Amino acid sequence: PGEPGRSPMSRLNIAGVESIIAVASGKGGVGKSTTAVNLAVAFALECKLRVGLLDADVYGPSVPTLMKLQGRPQLDKDSKMLPLENFGVKCMSMGFLMDKDAPAVWRGPMVMSALEKLSRGTSWGEIDVMVVDMPPGTGDAQISISQRLPLAGAVIVSTPQDLALVDARRGVNMFQKVDVPIVGIIENMSYFKCPKCGEVSDIFGHGGARSTSDEMRMEFLGEIPLNMAVRETSDEGAPIVASSPSSDVSGIYRIIARRI
Ligand code: ADP
Known about the structure:
Blueprint: E1 17-25, H1 32-45, E2 51-55, H2 63-66, E3 84-86, E4 89-93, H3 108-120, E5 127-133, H4 140-148, E6 151-158, H5 160-164, H6 167-177, E7 182-188, E8 192-193, E9 200-201, H7 208-215, E10 220-224, H8 228-236, H9 240-243, H10 248-259
Parallel strand pairs: 1-5, 1-6, 2-4, 2-5, 6-7, 7-10
Antiparallel strand pairs: 3-4, 8-9
């Protein structure tokens, strides 16, 4: 208590939820949501955990599309929302509560009250691990979320060239400032393996992830290739870990899930 940057009073638990892991990125478009969703499904299917997925990316909620879920959540007798479920994962997203094309013009306090509603206004039941798909970036909204939710740790998703730059470091620094341990770094779109000849190309460069993780004394959790099926299954709302469990990429997600 009283430590700078820390506000223990407001870090309330979410009823029924054992531990919470944030999936974050220094900037948008690196595959944070895709990774969050596939890890959540891997926790459920591979690790046999009871899993929740909280879409805290209120600016661009993608969980409804990625998990093929839509419609308004029903309310229980205490007027708490019941999460929507697919692939063994209970999900809650602002996308369930607003029109698809409605502009998400959120100011700081609105983000926090929306998040409050999604997290503690939901009747999750018993959950072993909750994955939080964070908004991209490292601004005030991300800091507030990290101060409000009792995060057990954060996973940082980055592309190789992003890692070479400063975004991932910024993410790491932000979580350290609010005393959230970094579980490790995942490199997404790491390499491309030609489906015809098997040749591997390092489209965005390669090797920087491991060394950056080492340099920052952080665990390197793994490399996810740039893969057509990952993109297609995301668009279809059938996460590859569930829809094509025997693929190489699904194996990589499962290994990373076990490491976490
Ligand atoms: P973010 O949450 O960081 O903004 P998304 O998860 O929405 O990023 O991913 C951005 C785009 O990249 C999406 O179209 C997604 O399908 C695609 N994508 C993400 N990871 C991969 C990958 N490993 N291989 C191919 N496409 C990917």
